[in-house]
Amino acid sequence: MPSAGPSRGRPWCPSSSRVPASRGTATPCRRVRDRARLRAAACHPAWRPASEWPTFPCRRRGRALRSRWTSGESCVTPRSARSPCIPRPEERTRVAESYPEDLKYHPDHDWARVEDGEAVFGITWYAQDALGEVVFFDPPEVGAAVSAGQPYAEVESVKAVSDVFAPLSGEITAVNQELVESPERINEDPYGEGWLVKVKLSEQGELDGLLDVDAYKALLAG
Questions:
Q1: Residue 75 exposure: Cα atoms within 13 Å on the Cβ side
Q2: Could you tell me which of 21, 47, 61, 84 has the fewest CB atoms within 10 Å of its CB?
Q3: Given this model, what pLDDT does residue 9 score?
Q4: Are residues 82 and 187 in the same domain?
């Protein structure tokens, strides 16, 4: 997810976009997404790059959501929202930067906690910080196959909709359903309650291609 700062893994292209398909009749999944967006309606500055450092690939949201944020001190809230403005990101307590030593890291800023042929996947502190406030997590189905280096889910923030890339190959055995109602846990606890999926690994040899914490920190340092 540009040139003034160090290169950090796969370049981030915040200007690329996906335009959603015709909405038609609302589905239960869409209603969940709408509720998540309404909870996130608040005072936020219009998007601009937080830094010159890239992060994992993403696409500008081709949706009306972006128009809900404004610059300056004013607050623009959707007509359908009934909750008061929540604090702007700079007014919240930020989670300290951290990269646990027991994890394996993918250059696209994803992590894997591996044990007995299974793994838990998530995104790193750097990824969630670059995304900003997460408002929706679009997970894969349990039983779906995932391939190392390929997208398997989407995370939507106030800045962008971003693909999440699998650090390892396997089959999805569980999805963190808590993120449906509380996607902000990805920001608040990216290595704990903000985990994304659990996977039964199919290619143990792929572990050798991931980074340990020192190598990942070196990647971030450029």
A1: 13
A2: 21
A3: 54
A4: no
